[in-house]
Amino acid sequence: MLRKIIISSFHHPNYAISSNLFNQFTRQRFFQSSSFPPNSSSLKALCSNGRLREALLEMAIQGLGIVFEGYDTLLNECVKQRAVREGQRVHSHMIKTCYFPPVYLGTRFIVLYAKCDFLGDARKMFDEMSLRNVVSWTAMISAYSQRGYASEALNLFVQILRSGTEPNEFTFATVLTSCTGNSGFELGRQIHSFVIKRNFDSHIFVGSSLLDMYAKAGRIHEARGVFECLPERDVVSCTAIVSGYAQLGFDEAALEVFRRLLREGMVPNYVTYASLLTVLSGLAALDLGKQVHNHVLRCKLPSYVVLENSLIDMYSKCGSVNYSRRIFDRMTERTAISWNAMLVGYSKHGMGREVVELFNFMKDENKVKPDSVTLLAVLSGCSHGGMKDKGLAIFYEMAKNGLEPEMEHYGCVVDLLGRAGRVDEAFEFIKKMPFEPTAAIWGCLLGACRVHLNVDIGELAGRWLLEIEPENAGNYVILSNLYASAGRWEDVRIIRELMKEKVVTKEPGKSWIEIDQILHTFHASDRSHPRREEVLTKVKELSVKFKEVGYVPDLSCVLYDVEEEQKEKILLNHSEKLALAFGFVSTPEGLPLRIIKNLRICVDCHDFAKFFSKVYGREVSIIDKNRFHRIVGGHCSCGDYW
C-alpha cells in the first residue's frame, strides 16, 4: 500500500529547488565531458533478474551518470530483497556524487531502513530531508507503529499537524494503530474527531483502524458503530470486528456477525479463519470447528502457522486433543506458540505424561527454546496429572536454565503440593515465596484444604482471600463448606451473614451445548428456552433415577439460607443440568455430550454428570473455567479435584 502512495506522490513532487539545480548542473557537466549516455536500461535488466550486486557494480561504473530512474530502480530492488547494506551503498554513492535525493527517493530510503529494522537510520534520513511530503511523514510514523514505538509515532503525528502538512487517509489509518493504553486511547478519540472533520471516516483503511482501536480498548459497541457506518467493507474490516468480539469473549455475537458477513458475500482469509476458530474455541463448538477446518482445506489456503495454531487450540478446547496432535505433527514449521498450544491442551485434559513427553521432545529437537509460558503449561500438566516429583524437579531447574520463575509458576507448585495432600508443605512454600501471595495462590491453597479437610490452614487462607477479594462469592462458598465439613455451624452462619452484609452476588451461571451445529444457551433457572418445560421435567426425572443408585444432592453448593427442599430445587435449575438434560433428549442414544460452562462447575453438577455417565453409558465432556472434565463410566479425568 505504502509503495502505491509513494509512487502517486512522485507525480506531484515538492523537490528542493537548490537540490534540483545542483543535480541538473552536475549532470550537464558530466554529459558534456562524456562520450556515452547513462545506461539505465542495463540497471533495470539486472535488477529485474534479482542481480543486485552486479547492478551495484554497474552503478559504480556509471558514476555521475546515474539519474533518478537508476537510483529508483536500485532502491526498489533493495527494498524488495531487504538488502540494507546494498541500500547503504546506494546512499553512499549519492553522497559521493553530490546527488541530493528528491522527496520520493528520501522516502524510499526511510521505507528500506524501516523494513530492515534500521529504525535509527530511517529517522536520521527523515530528519535530514530538507523537504517532506505527507508520504514521508506517513512512512516514518508507520515505521514506529509497526515496531511498537507508540509514543514516538504519536509524537510524530503531532509534529505533522504543527508542520502544516495535511495528513491523508493512510496517515490516519497508520497512527490509529498506536492509540493503545489509556492515554493512547484518549488521543485516538481526538484523532477520530479530526478524521470526521476531514471526511476520512468513510474510508475503508481508516474505518478498519478505528474499529480495531475501539475493540482493543474494550469498546466493542463503538467498534460496531464504526463498522456499520462504513459504506463498503473489505475482509480486513470484517476480520477486525469478528476478532474484536472474540478477544472480549463475546463469542456468540462474533459468530453471528461472521455468518451475516458470509451472507453478504465476504471471502474470508486466513486471519479471519484464525479469529473465527478462537470464537469456536470459546464456545467449544466442535462440529462448527470441523466445518471451518474443512472449509479451510477446500479453499487450499497455505499452511499459515497462525492458522494451524488456532486449529490446535480449537480442537483441544473442544475435547479432541488427538486431532490437535495430528495437526501439530504435520506442521512444517512450529513456533513457541505451537508448542505451548499443544502443551496447554494436554495440561487442561490432565494428561501429565503426554505433557512431559512433548516437553522432552521439544528440548531434544532444540529448534524452539522453551519460554515462561511453556514451563507454566508443563507445571500445570504435572499438577493435573498427579506428577508431583517431576513437576517440582522442573520448577527447581528453571533458574538453572535462565528462566526466573514468576508468580504463576509458584502458583502451580502450590497447586501441585495441594493436590498431593501436602497442604502444610504448600503453606510453608507460600511463606517463602519472593512475592506477596495473590488471590489465585490463596485460592489454590483453600481448594486443597477443602479437599483434604485441613480446617486450620484453610481458615487462614480463606481469611486472606476475603480481604483481597471481598466481592468473590466463590471464596465465601468454599470457606463455608470447609466449616460445614468440620461441623462448625456457627462459623458457617457468620460467613453467610458476611456475604449478605457485603452484598456479595455470584456471577450468573451459563452453559452451552451444540446440537446439529446450533448453539443452545441455558442460564440458571432458565425460562427462555422454547423447550424449557420438557427440559425441566427431564432434569427432575434424572434426579429421581440417580438417587436410586446412590446420588445425594450436595446442598452445600447453595448459598441461600432456605429450607433443604428449596435448596434442592435451586440445584436442579443449575445451567449445567439443564444443558445436559437438553442434550439427552435431543441426541441419539450413546452419542457423547459436550457442554461448556462460563464458571467453575459446582460439586453437585459434577456428581450429577458422573451419575449420568454411569447410568446411561454415555461420555460427558464439560469445559469449565478451570479445566476440561472428561467423564466416562462415572469417572472424571480431573480425579474429582478442580
Describe it for me?
- With 642 residues, this protein is mainly alpha-helical.
- 66% of the residues lie in helices and 4% in strands.
- It has helices at residues 2-10, 17-33, 40-48, 52-62, 68-81, 84-96, 103-115, 119-128, 134-146, 150-163, 169-175, 181-197, 204-216, 220-229, 235-247, 251-263, 270-283, 286-299, 305-317, 321-330, 336-348, 352-365, 372-384, 388-398, 407-419, 423-431, 439-452, 455-468, 473-485, 489-501, 532-547, 564-572, 575-586, 603-616, and strands at 510-515, 518-523, 593-597, 620-623, 628-632, 635-636.
- A six-stranded mixed beta sheet has the order 2-1-3-4-5-6, with helices on one face.
- It starts with a helix and ends in a 6-residue tail after the last strand.
- The relative contact order is 0.04.
- Residues 1-37 have low confidence and may be disordered.
Attribute tags:
single chain, 642 residues, mainly alpha, 34 helices, 66% helix, elongated, disordered N terminus
Gap from first CA to last CA: 51 Å
| Helical residue percent band | 55-70%
Class of secondary structure makeup = mainly alpha
Number of helices: 34
Which whole number gives the mean pLDDT?
86
Beta fraction:
under 5%
Low-confidence parts, pLDDT < 50 over ≥5 residues?
1-37
Biggest sheet layout: 6 strands, mixed
Shape: elongated
What oligomeric state do the depicted chains represent?
Answer: single chain
- Count all strands and give the number: 6
Please give the radius of gyration in angstroms: 32 Å
**Order of adjacent strands in the largest pleated sheet:** 2-1-3-4-5-6
